[in-house]
Design goal:
single chain, 194 residues, mainly alpha, 3-methyladenine DNA Glycosylase II, Chain A, domain 3, Alpha-Beta Plaits, two-stranded antiparallel ribbon, 7% strand, extended
Length: 194
């Protein structure tokens, strides 16, 4: 039996999936939940711009309104670029990227996968050497490009969330095993010798 998307899912599908937080929520899905519950308005997403507001208004059967500039202004699409000779390999940008669009390892130069970057700018602030700049995104003529880019960003974000969740479970399991080993060692040490 096919699942029908909830209103929250439909709203979320119209959002750009940058996970940037400019709307004052911790990502696109929480913003979609807030719109669906009436807590947030449809005009709080600068990356979505007027087109996104129109799409949300059509879905919800309300009139479009101008972007609320309290949350920022709509900018042309951009992608992050790392100035390689300045990168110190701290990995702070990698941890900040909500779609895993930055490759690198500790103490090695990082690079951005431009085709996967959503332009959220979340990698800029944590960089201690200011080696990340935003550049115009490559132009595209495809009508469905916005929806495709959003869907791809959502898949990458969801995959990252699943990976992080799995890492937390594995970390907790390792801590539990370590604690059990320490308890067992303490028990053996405190046992009377025969």
């Amino acid at each position: 039996m096919p699942e029908f998307p909830t209103l929250i899912d439909q709203i979320n599908a119209l959002l750009p999936q940058t996970q940037c937080g400019q709307c004052s929520f911790q990502g696109c899905r929480p913003y979609a939940e807030a719109i669906a519950s009436g807590v947030a308005d449809i005009n709080q997403c600068p990356p979505g711009g007027d087109e996104g507001i129109r799409d949300l208004a059509d879905l919800l059967g309300v009139s479009p309104k101008p972007l609320n500039t309290h949350f920022g202004v709509h900018k042309p699409a951009s992608v992050a670029f790392i100035v390689e000779e300045d990168c110190i390999g701290c990995t702070k940008c990698i941890a900040a990227c909500p779609v895993d669009a930055i490759l690198g390892a500790a103490k090695f130069m990082h690079t951005v996968i431009a085709s996967e970057c959503t332009g959220c700018e979340l990698c800029i602030a944590p960089c201690p050497v200011d080696c990340i700049i935003m550049q115009p995104a490559p132009p595209t003529n495809a009508d469905g490009h916005r929806a495709q880019k959003s869907a791809q960003a959502k898949r990458r974000y969801d995959a990252r969330c699943l990976r992080k969740e799995k890492e937390e479970v594995e970390k907790a399991e390792r801590a539990k095993k370590k604690k059990q080993a320490l308890l067992a060692a303490n028990l053996r040490r405190n046992m009377p010798k025969a």
